Amino acid sequence: MTNVLNIIGGGMAGCEAAWQAANMGVQVVIHEMRPKVETFAHQTGNLGEMVCSNSFRSDDDEQNAVGLLHWEMRAANGLIMATAEKHRIPAGGALAVDREPFAESVTAAIKAHPNITISYDEIHALPSEGTWIVATGPLTSGDLATSIASATGKESLAFFDAIAPIIYADSIDMSKAWMQSRYDKGETEEERTAYLNCPMSKEQYEAFIDALLASDKTEFKEGETAGYFDGCLPIEVMAERGRETLRFGPMKPVGLTNPHNPDMNAYAVVQLRRDNALGTLFNIVGFQTKMKYGAQKEVLRMIPGLEGAEFARLGGIHRNTFINSPTLLDREMRLKSMPHLRFAGQITGVEGYVESAAMGLLAGRMAASEMLGAPLPAPPRETAMGALVAHITGDAEAKTFQPMNVNFGLFPPIEGIKGGRKRRAERYKAYTDRAKACWQGWLGHSALDAAE
Protein backbone atom coordinates (compact mmCIF):
# COMPACT_ATOMS: atom_id res chain seq x y z
CA MET A 1 0.00 0.00 0.00
CA THR A 2 3.01 2.27 -0.48
CA ASN A 3 1.30 4.18 -3.31
CA VAL A 4 -1.84 4.72 -1.27
CA LEU A 5 -2.53 7.41 1.28
CA ASN A 6 -4.22 5.85 4.30
CA ILE A 7 -6.28 8.05 6.60
CA ILE A 8 -7.45 6.91 10.02
CA GLY A 9 -10.72 8.61 10.87
CA GLY A 10 -13.68 9.76 8.80
CA GLY A 11 -14.46 12.98 10.62
CA MET A 12 -14.11 16.42 9.09
CA ALA A 13 -10.32 16.40 9.15
CA GLY A 14 -10.07 12.93 7.62
CA CYS A 15 -12.65 13.65 4.92
CA GLU A 16 -11.06 16.97 3.98
CA ALA A 17 -7.61 15.37 3.84
CA ALA A 18 -8.94 12.59 1.61
CA TRP A 19 -10.75 15.04 -0.67
CA GLN A 20 -7.69 17.22 -1.18
CA ALA A 21 -5.31 14.33 -1.82
CA ALA A 22 -7.74 12.51 -4.12
CA ASN A 23 -8.24 15.67 -6.19
CA MET A 24 -4.48 15.77 -6.66
CA GLY A 25 -4.62 12.28 -8.21
CA VAL A 26 -3.59 10.18 -5.20
CA GLN A 27 -5.39 6.98 -4.27
CA VAL A 28 -6.84 7.25 -0.76
CA VAL A 29 -8.27 4.78 1.76
CA ILE A 30 -10.23 6.13 4.72
CA HIS A 31 -10.27 3.77 7.70
CA GLU A 32 -13.39 4.51 9.78
CA MET A 33 -14.38 2.27 12.67
CA ARG A 34 -18.00 3.50 12.81
CA PRO A 35 -20.66 2.14 12.65
CA LYS A 36 -19.08 -1.18 13.69
CA VAL A 37 -17.46 0.47 16.71
CA GLU A 38 -19.59 3.20 18.24
CA THR A 39 -18.61 6.20 20.36
CA PHE A 40 -20.36 8.06 23.14
CA ALA A 41 -21.00 11.17 21.08
CA HIS A 42 -21.76 9.94 17.54
CA GLN A 43 -25.34 9.14 16.57
CA THR A 44 -24.85 7.72 13.04
CA GLY A 45 -22.30 5.98 10.88
CA ASN A 46 -22.01 8.95 8.52
CA LEU A 47 -18.69 10.57 7.75
CA GLY A 48 -18.19 14.17 8.88
CA GLU A 49 -20.83 13.92 11.60
CA MET A 50 -21.16 16.99 13.84
CA VAL A 51 -21.31 15.85 17.45
CA CYS A 52 -21.39 19.17 19.32
CA SER A 53 -22.65 22.46 17.88
CA ASN A 54 -23.99 22.80 14.35
CA SER A 55 -22.12 26.08 13.86
CA PHE A 56 -18.89 26.84 12.01
CA ARG A 57 -18.94 30.23 13.77
CA SER A 58 -18.37 33.61 12.08
CA ASP A 59 -18.38 33.77 8.29
CA ASP A 60 -16.89 37.29 8.20
CA ASP A 61 -13.67 36.93 6.17
CA GLU A 62 -12.61 40.56 6.68
CA GLN A 63 -12.93 41.02 10.45
CA ASN A 64 -12.79 37.52 11.91
CA ALA A 65 -10.02 34.92 11.89
CA VAL A 66 -12.34 31.92 11.62
CA GLY A 67 -14.21 33.63 8.77
CA LEU A 68 -10.85 34.07 7.06
CA LEU A 69 -10.23 30.35 7.55
CA HIS A 70 -13.55 29.69 5.80
CA TRP A 71 -12.34 31.84 2.89
CA GLU A 72 -9.03 30.00 2.61
CA MET A 73 -10.73 26.61 2.61
CA ARG A 74 -13.19 27.70 -0.06
CA ALA A 75 -10.31 28.99 -2.19
CA ALA A 76 -8.71 25.54 -1.89
CA ASN A 77 -11.88 23.78 -3.13
CA GLY A 78 -12.57 22.47 0.37
CA LEU A 79 -15.23 19.79 0.71
CA ILE A 80 -16.34 20.80 4.19
CA MET A 81 -16.97 24.45 3.32
CA ALA A 82 -18.73 23.63 0.05
CA THR A 83 -21.00 21.15 1.84
CA ALA A 84 -21.66 23.59 4.67
CA GLU A 85 -22.77 26.23 2.16
CA LYS A 86 -25.09 23.69 0.54
CA HIS A 87 -26.85 23.01 3.85
CA ARG A 88 -26.61 26.45 5.39
CA ILE A 89 -29.36 27.63 7.73
CA PRO A 90 -29.90 31.15 9.19
CA ALA A 91 -27.57 32.05 12.05
CA GLY A 92 -27.02 35.80 11.86
CA GLY A 93 -23.41 36.40 10.84
CA ALA A 94 -22.42 32.81 11.59
CA LEU A 95 -22.28 29.78 9.29
CA ALA A 96 -24.56 27.11 10.75
CA VAL A 97 -25.77 23.97 9.00
CA ASP A 98 -28.51 21.37 9.05
CA ARG A 99 -26.30 18.69 10.57
CA GLU A 100 -27.86 15.44 9.28
CA PRO A 101 -28.05 16.39 5.57
CA PHE A 102 -24.58 17.90 5.93
CA ALA A 103 -23.05 14.60 7.07
CA GLU A 104 -25.04 12.66 4.49
CA SER A 105 -23.69 14.91 1.73
CA VAL A 106 -20.10 14.61 2.95
CA THR A 107 -20.49 10.82 3.00
CA ALA A 108 -22.00 10.76 -0.50
CA ALA A 109 -19.24 12.96 -1.94
CA ILE A 110 -16.50 10.80 -0.44
CA LYS A 111 -18.11 7.57 -1.63
CA ALA A 112 -18.58 8.98 -5.14
CA HIS A 113 -14.96 10.07 -5.59
CA PRO A 114 -13.15 7.62 -7.90
CA ASN A 115 -9.87 7.94 -5.99
CA ILE A 116 -11.30 7.26 -2.51
CA THR A 117 -12.35 4.02 -0.88
CA ILE A 118 -13.61 3.45 2.67
CA SER A 119 -12.59 0.59 4.92
CA TYR A 120 -14.89 0.15 7.92
CA ASP A 121 -12.35 -1.31 10.27
CA GLU A 122 -10.75 -0.24 13.51
CA ILE A 123 -7.03 0.50 13.47
CA HIS A 124 -5.65 -0.62 16.84
CA ALA A 125 -2.06 0.53 16.50
CA LEU A 126 0.02 3.03 14.57
CA PRO A 127 1.22 1.38 11.32
CA SER A 128 4.97 0.90 10.93
CA GLU A 129 5.05 1.50 7.16
CA GLY A 130 3.16 3.19 4.36
CA THR A 131 1.89 6.77 4.20
CA TRP A 132 -0.69 7.61 6.84
CA ILE A 133 -2.64 10.50 8.31
CA VAL A 134 -4.03 10.06 11.81
CA ALA A 135 -7.24 12.11 12.04
CA THR A 136 -9.10 10.24 14.74
CA GLY A 137 -10.38 13.33 16.48
CA PRO A 138 -11.40 13.79 20.09
CA LEU A 139 -12.69 10.24 20.55
CA THR A 140 -9.62 8.23 19.55
CA SER A 141 -10.21 4.59 20.49
CA GLY A 142 -8.45 3.21 23.54
CA ASP A 143 -6.05 0.85 21.77
CA LEU A 144 -4.93 3.44 19.24
CA ALA A 145 -4.55 6.09 21.94
CA THR A 146 -2.31 3.70 23.86
CA SER A 147 -0.27 3.06 20.71
CA ILE A 148 0.12 6.81 20.11
CA ALA A 149 1.25 7.33 23.70
CA SER A 150 3.76 4.51 23.33
CA ALA A 151 5.13 5.87 20.05
CA THR A 152 5.51 9.41 21.34
CA GLY A 153 7.05 8.40 24.64
CA LYS A 154 4.60 10.65 26.46
CA GLU A 155 1.14 10.33 27.90
CA SER A 156 -1.55 11.76 25.67
CA LEU A 157 -2.94 14.99 26.98
CA ALA A 158 -6.69 15.18 27.44
CA PHE A 159 -9.48 17.56 28.26
CA PHE A 160 -13.25 17.21 28.34
CA ASP A 161 -15.74 18.53 25.80
CA ALA A 162 -19.35 19.12 26.79
CA ILE A 163 -22.32 18.94 24.40
CA ALA A 164 -25.28 21.35 24.45
CA PRO A 165 -28.89 20.09 24.59
CA ILE A 166 -31.25 20.26 21.58
CA ILE A 167 -34.91 21.19 22.05
CA TYR A 168 -38.00 20.60 19.89
CA ALA A 169 -39.17 23.97 18.56
CA ASP A 170 -42.88 23.27 19.09
CA SER A 171 -42.28 22.84 22.83
CA ILE A 172 -41.01 26.43 23.25
CA ASP A 173 -43.43 29.06 24.59
CA MET A 174 -43.30 31.86 22.01
CA SER A 175 -45.47 34.12 24.17
CA LYS A 176 -42.30 34.61 26.24
CA ALA A 177 -39.57 34.03 23.64
CA TRP A 178 -38.91 35.89 20.38
CA MET A 179 -36.74 35.65 17.26
CA GLN A 180 -33.91 38.17 16.82
CA SER A 181 -30.17 38.16 16.16
CA ARG A 182 -28.14 40.43 18.41
CA TYR A 183 -28.04 43.95 16.99
CA ASP A 184 -30.24 42.62 14.15
CA LYS A 185 -27.11 41.26 12.51
CA GLY A 186 -27.52 39.74 9.06
CA GLU A 187 -28.23 40.78 5.49
CA THR A 188 -31.70 39.24 5.24
CA GLU A 189 -34.74 39.20 7.49
CA GLU A 190 -34.18 35.49 8.03
CA GLU A 191 -30.62 36.14 9.23
CA ARG A 192 -31.73 39.06 11.41
CA THR A 193 -34.20 36.74 13.15
CA ALA A 194 -31.98 33.67 13.31
CA TYR A 195 -31.86 33.27 17.10
CA LEU A 196 -34.61 32.49 19.57
CA ASN A 197 -34.34 34.53 22.78
CA CYS A 198 -35.55 33.72 26.28
CA PRO A 199 -35.29 36.69 28.71
CA MET A 200 -34.64 36.50 32.45
CA SER A 201 -35.22 38.98 35.22
CA LYS A 202 -32.60 39.36 37.94
CA GLU A 203 -34.63 37.15 40.29
CA GLN A 204 -35.02 34.45 37.64
CA TYR A 205 -31.32 34.58 36.81
CA GLU A 206 -30.27 34.27 40.46
CA ALA A 207 -32.61 31.31 40.98
CA PHE A 208 -31.27 29.68 37.82
CA ILE A 209 -27.65 30.07 39.00
CA ASP A 210 -28.55 28.62 42.40
CA ALA A 211 -30.16 25.57 40.77
CA LEU A 212 -27.27 25.18 38.36
CA LEU A 213 -24.68 25.18 41.14
CA ALA A 214 -26.69 22.71 43.23
CA SER A 215 -27.53 20.30 40.38
CA ASP A 216 -26.33 16.71 40.12
CA LYS A 217 -23.38 16.51 37.74
CA THR A 218 -21.47 13.77 35.94
CA GLU A 219 -18.63 12.47 38.06
CA PHE A 220 -15.34 11.47 36.49
CA LYS A 221 -13.95 8.00 36.87
CA GLU A 222 -11.28 7.36 39.46
CA GLY A 223 -7.93 8.56 38.16
CA GLU A 224 -9.43 10.91 35.58
CA THR A 225 -8.56 14.58 35.70
CA ALA A 226 -10.54 17.22 33.89
CA GLY A 227 -9.02 20.13 32.04
CA TYR A 228 -11.64 22.07 30.11
CA PHE A 229 -11.04 24.05 26.93
CA ASP A 230 -12.04 27.64 27.76
CA GLY A 231 -14.00 28.01 24.51
CA CYS A 232 -16.27 25.08 25.38
CA LEU A 233 -16.81 25.26 29.15
CA PRO A 234 -19.83 23.56 30.71
CA ILE A 235 -22.29 26.13 32.04
CA GLU A 236 -21.84 24.76 35.57
CA VAL A 237 -18.11 25.40 35.41
CA MET A 238 -18.72 28.95 34.18
CA ALA A 239 -21.17 29.52 37.04
CA GLU A 240 -18.64 28.20 39.54
CA ARG A 241 -16.19 30.86 38.35
CA GLY A 242 -18.59 33.61 39.38
CA ARG A 243 -22.32 34.24 39.49
CA GLU A 244 -22.10 36.88 36.77
CA THR A 245 -19.91 34.84 34.39
CA LEU A 246 -22.82 33.48 32.35
CA ARG A 247 -24.44 36.91 32.17
CA PHE A 248 -21.30 38.26 30.52
CA GLY A 249 -20.92 35.14 28.36
CA PRO A 250 -23.59 33.16 26.49
CA MET A 251 -26.41 34.85 28.45
CA LYS A 252 -25.39 38.46 27.80
CA PRO A 253 -28.53 40.64 27.41
CA VAL A 254 -27.22 43.04 24.78
CA GLY A 255 -28.39 44.04 21.28
CA LEU A 256 -31.91 42.68 21.81
CA THR A 257 -35.40 44.14 22.21
CA ASN A 258 -38.17 42.01 23.65
CA PRO A 259 -41.31 42.64 21.52
CA HIS A 260 -43.47 41.24 24.35
CA ASN A 261 -42.15 43.93 26.72
CA PRO A 262 -40.08 46.48 24.75
CA ASP A 263 -39.65 48.88 27.67
CA MET A 264 -38.15 46.26 29.98
CA ASN A 265 -34.46 45.38 29.72
CA ALA A 266 -33.73 41.73 30.47
CA TYR A 267 -31.12 40.98 33.11
CA ALA A 268 -29.92 37.95 31.12
CA VAL A 269 -30.97 36.24 27.86
CA VAL A 270 -30.67 32.61 26.84
CA GLN A 271 -30.30 32.19 23.07
CA LEU A 272 -31.19 29.17 20.98
CA ARG A 273 -30.08 28.62 17.39
CA ARG A 274 -31.85 26.63 14.71
CA ASP A 275 -30.30 23.17 14.43
CA ASN A 276 -31.91 21.99 11.22
CA ALA A 277 -33.29 23.48 8.01
CA LEU A 278 -36.89 22.69 8.93
CA GLY A 279 -36.59 24.80 12.05
CA THR A 280 -38.02 21.98 14.17
CA LEU A 281 -34.93 21.70 16.39
CA PHE A 282 -33.04 24.37 18.35
CA ASN A 283 -29.83 24.04 20.34
CA ILE A 284 -29.12 26.21 23.38
CA VAL A 285 -26.16 28.40 22.42
CA GLY A 286 -23.15 28.05 24.71
CA PHE A 287 -25.00 25.67 27.07
CA GLN A 288 -22.62 22.73 27.04
CA THR A 289 -23.27 20.80 30.22
CA LYS A 290 -22.16 17.92 32.40
CA MET A 291 -25.37 17.89 34.46
CA LYS A 292 -27.03 14.50 34.77
CA TYR A 293 -30.02 14.02 32.49
CA GLY A 294 -32.68 14.49 35.17
CA ALA A 295 -31.02 17.64 36.45
CA GLN A 296 -30.76 19.06 32.92
CA LYS A 297 -34.51 18.83 32.39
CA GLU A 298 -35.28 20.34 35.78
CA VAL A 299 -32.81 23.24 35.58
CA LEU A 300 -33.25 24.14 31.91
CA ARG A 301 -37.03 24.24 32.27
CA MET A 302 -36.52 27.14 34.69
CA ILE A 303 -35.68 29.29 31.65
CA PRO A 304 -38.65 31.48 30.65
CA GLY A 305 -40.17 30.02 27.50
CA LEU A 306 -38.67 26.58 28.11
CA GLU A 307 -40.93 25.52 30.98
CA GLY A 308 -42.46 22.83 28.76
CA ALA A 309 -39.33 22.06 26.75
CA GLU A 310 -39.03 18.62 25.19
CA PHE A 311 -35.49 17.48 24.43
CA ALA A 312 -34.39 15.83 21.19
CA ARG A 313 -30.95 15.36 22.74
CA LEU A 314 -29.70 16.08 26.23
CA GLY A 315 -26.25 17.46 26.86
CA GLY A 316 -23.26 15.31 27.71
CA ILE A 317 -19.55 15.25 28.28
CA HIS A 318 -16.78 13.26 26.66
CA ARG A 319 -13.05 12.88 26.89
CA ASN A 320 -11.04 14.66 24.20
CA THR A 321 -7.55 13.37 23.46
CA PHE A 322 -4.80 15.40 21.80
CA ILE A 323 -1.03 15.20 21.50
CA ASN A 324 1.66 17.68 22.49
CA SER A 325 2.17 18.77 18.90
CA PRO A 326 4.83 21.46 19.56
CA THR A 327 7.26 18.77 20.68
CA LEU A 328 6.09 15.88 18.50
CA LEU A 329 5.29 17.24 15.02
CA ASP A 330 7.45 18.97 12.42
CA ARG A 331 6.23 21.92 10.36
CA GLU A 332 4.78 19.53 7.75
CA MET A 333 2.67 17.87 10.47
CA ARG A 334 4.74 14.68 10.47
CA LEU A 335 5.52 12.78 13.64
CA LYS A 336 9.23 13.46 14.10
CA SER A 337 9.98 9.94 15.32
CA MET A 338 7.88 8.30 12.55
CA PRO A 339 7.76 10.68 9.57
CA HIS A 340 5.56 8.35 7.50
CA LEU A 341 2.77 9.41 9.88
CA ARG A 342 1.04 12.78 9.80
CA PHE A 343 -1.49 13.98 12.33
CA ALA A 344 -4.48 16.19 11.50
CA GLY A 345 -7.58 17.58 13.12
CA GLN A 346 -8.46 18.01 16.74
CA ILE A 347 -5.94 15.42 17.92
CA THR A 348 -3.20 17.92 17.02
CA GLY A 349 -4.48 20.45 19.55
CA VAL A 350 -6.64 22.70 17.40
CA GLU A 351 -10.16 23.40 18.61
CA GLY A 352 -13.28 23.69 16.48
CA TYR A 353 -14.79 22.10 13.38
CA VAL A 354 -13.22 24.60 11.00
CA GLU A 355 -9.75 24.42 12.50
CA SER A 356 -9.88 20.61 12.48
CA ALA A 357 -10.97 20.44 8.85
CA ALA A 358 -8.31 23.02 7.92
CA MET A 359 -5.56 20.87 9.41
CA GLY A 360 -6.95 17.95 7.41
CA LEU A 361 -6.80 20.07 4.27
CA LEU A 362 -3.13 20.86 4.88
CA ALA A 363 -2.17 17.31 5.84
CA GLY A 364 -3.88 15.90 2.75
CA ARG A 365 -2.16 18.33 0.41
CA MET A 366 1.24 17.86 2.04
CA ALA A 367 1.02 14.07 2.04
CA ALA A 368 -0.14 13.95 -1.59
CA SER A 369 2.55 16.38 -2.73
CA GLU A 370 5.23 14.30 -1.03
CA MET A 371 3.90 11.13 -2.64
CA LEU A 372 3.93 12.87 -6.04
CA GLY A 373 7.58 13.85 -5.62
CA ALA A 374 7.04 17.58 -5.04
CA PRO A 375 7.08 18.12 -1.24
CA LEU A 376 5.00 21.08 -0.16
CA PRO A 377 6.09 23.43 2.63
CA ALA A 378 3.67 24.76 5.21
CA PRO A 379 1.72 27.83 4.09
CA PRO A 380 2.99 31.29 5.08
CA ARG A 381 2.44 32.32 8.70
CA GLU A 382 0.57 35.36 7.39
CA THR A 383 -2.34 33.07 6.37
CA ALA A 384 -4.90 31.72 8.81
CA MET A 385 -3.85 28.11 8.16
CA GLY A 386 -0.18 29.01 8.29
CA ALA A 387 -0.57 30.85 11.58
CA LEU A 388 -2.51 27.96 13.12
CA VAL A 389 -0.19 25.18 11.99
CA ALA A 390 2.86 27.21 13.06
CA HIS A 391 1.33 27.60 16.50
CA ILE A 392 0.68 23.90 17.06
CA THR A 393 3.96 22.69 15.54
CA GLY A 394 6.38 24.84 17.46
CA ASP A 395 5.27 28.36 18.31
CA ALA A 396 3.17 27.30 21.30
CA GLU A 397 4.79 26.72 24.67
CA ALA A 398 4.97 22.92 24.98
CA LYS A 399 4.73 22.90 28.79
CA THR A 400 1.41 24.72 28.80
CA PHE A 401 0.05 23.58 25.42
CA GLN A 402 -3.75 23.59 25.25
CA PRO A 403 -6.25 23.38 22.36
CA MET A 404 -6.45 26.61 20.38
CA ASN A 405 -8.97 28.24 18.06
CA VAL A 406 -7.64 30.35 15.20
CA ASN A 407 -7.34 34.01 16.21
CA PHE A 408 -5.52 37.13 15.06
CA GLY A 409 -3.17 36.86 18.03
CA LEU A 410 -1.41 34.04 16.14
CA PHE A 411 -0.67 36.26 13.12
CA PRO A 412 2.60 38.15 12.57
CA PRO A 413 2.08 41.89 13.23
CA ILE A 414 1.82 44.30 10.32
CA GLU A 415 4.26 47.20 10.35
CA GLY A 416 2.64 50.61 10.45
CA ILE A 417 -0.67 49.33 11.86
CA LYS A 418 -1.10 50.41 15.46
CA GLY A 419 -2.69 48.26 18.12
CA GLY A 420 -5.56 49.18 20.37
CA ARG A 421 -9.32 48.84 20.27
CA LYS A 422 -9.90 51.95 18.13
CA ARG A 423 -7.78 50.64 15.26
CA ARG A 424 -8.96 47.05 15.51
CA ALA A 425 -11.20 47.06 12.41
CA GLU A 426 -8.39 48.55 10.31
CA ARG A 427 -5.89 46.07 11.74
CA TYR A 428 -8.10 43.05 11.14
CA LYS A 429 -8.84 44.12 7.57
CA ALA A 430 -5.09 44.45 6.97
CA TYR A 431 -4.54 40.96 8.38
CA THR A 432 -7.19 39.42 6.14
CA ASP A 433 -6.08 41.28 2.99
CA ARG A 434 -2.50 40.14 3.52
CA ALA A 435 -3.58 36.59 4.33
CA LYS A 436 -5.70 36.24 1.19
CA ALA A 437 -2.85 37.37 -1.06
CA CYS A 438 -0.40 35.01 0.64
CA TRP A 439 -2.85 32.10 0.53
CA GLN A 440 -3.53 32.56 -3.18
CA GLY A 441 0.21 32.65 -3.78
CA TRP A 442 0.72 29.44 -1.83
CA LEU A 443 -2.13 27.70 -3.64
CA GLY A 444 -0.75 28.76 -7.00
CA HIS A 445 2.72 27.58 -6.08
CA SER A 446 1.46 24.21 -4.87
CA ALA A 447 -0.62 23.76 -8.02
CA LEU A 448 2.45 24.39 -10.18
CA ASP A 449 4.48 21.89 -8.19
CA ALA A 450 1.76 19.27 -8.54
CA ALA A 451 1.52 19.89 -12.27
CA GLU A 452 5.27 19.44 -12.74
Question: How does this structure look, described?
Answer:
The chain is α+β, with helices and mostly antiparallel strands and 452 residues long. The chain has 2 domains: 4-156 and 323-451, FAD/NAD(P)-binding domain (3-Layer(bba) Sandwich); 163-319, Elongation Factor Tu (Ef-tu), domain 3, CATH 2.40.30.260. It is built from 13 helices and 17 strands. A hairpin with a 2-residue loop joins strand 16 (334-335) and strand 17 (338-343). It is globular, with a radius of gyration of 22 Å.
List keywords for this structure.
6-stranded mixed β-sheet, Elongation Factor Tu (Ef-tu), domain 3, alpha+beta, 452 residues, 2 domains, FAD/NAD(P)-binding domain, 6-stranded antiparallel β-sheet, single chain
Walk me through the topology.
Layout: E1 4-8, H1 12-23, E2 27-31, E3 55-58, H2 65-75, H3 79-86, E4 88-89, E5 94-97, H4 99-112, E6 116-119, E7 131-134, H5 142-152, E8 157-163, E9 166-168, E10 178-179, H6 189-192, E11 195-200, H7 202-214, H8 235-240, E12 268-274, E13 281-284, H9 293-300, E14 311-313, E15 316-322, H10 325-328, E16 334-335, E17 338-343, H11 353-371, H12 384-395, H13 424-451
Parallel strand pairs: 1-2, 1-7, 2-6, 7-17
Antiparallel strand pairs: 3-5, 4-5, 8-15, 9-13, 9-14, 10-11, 11-12, 12-13, 16-17
Helix pairs in contact: 1-11, 2-11, 2-13, 3-4
